[in-house]
Amino acid sequence: MPIFRLFLRMGGWLVVMLGLVFVGLSLVSASDADLARRFDDEGRQANGTISHKRFARTRNPDGSLSTSYWMTLRYPTHAGEVVMQERLVNATEYLRAMRGDRVSLRYLPDDPRTIELVGNWYHSAARTTSTLALGVGIVWLLCLWVVGRRSVDAIRTREYGRRDGATVTGIRRAAIRVPGCPDTRLTWRDGQGNAGQSLLHHGRDLYALDQGDHITIYRGPDQSWWVGDLGERAGSAG
After folding, report:
1. How far is CA 85 from its chain centroid?
2. For the sheet containing 44-59, what is the strand order?
3. What's the pTM?
């Protein structure tokens, strides 16, 4: 089995997902930091008015209702243009604001629809997302190290470990099961009495095996691995 496929089966899919989240948060943080810098350098002050409010309720797949709130802002620019922009807001902002209320905001001259209602909002957003990215990055590196080390250990055991026999002791379902995902492990005991277990499989893939059947394992310095998980080493007669 190729090492990347084995890596994914050992939980590498979680590492990949965390990596994507880390990259996404980093990009958002960089974008917010860039907007914060632009507002500091180029932002123009304006006084706007809340010209309209509305809300809409939608039914979720589980039958519950969700409510979304919007406010329309009307504000002039230094170029003489009057901009009307509808923004999605939270329930607290919606209930607190009244039609006709005046709001202070900043906008970008080359993109007057990009506004900042709260002072230094983009600075705060950049700090928050960068902190989140740092936390996710630390978890990602830890998971990468754990899963990567285990995958390399398994491949090294297949290539250099001792090929041995073991007896199946049972087939065990995982405590936490996700629909459609592998959720069954093969368990065994080798000739020295050491217990072992396979990676997760779909139950249908293990139906041919039963308690007392003999299987082949590769014995490593720390644990043994089932040939059905790793595949035969190159040149093995099987």
Report:
1. 32
2. 82-89, 65-76, 44-59, 102-108, 111-116
3. 0.77
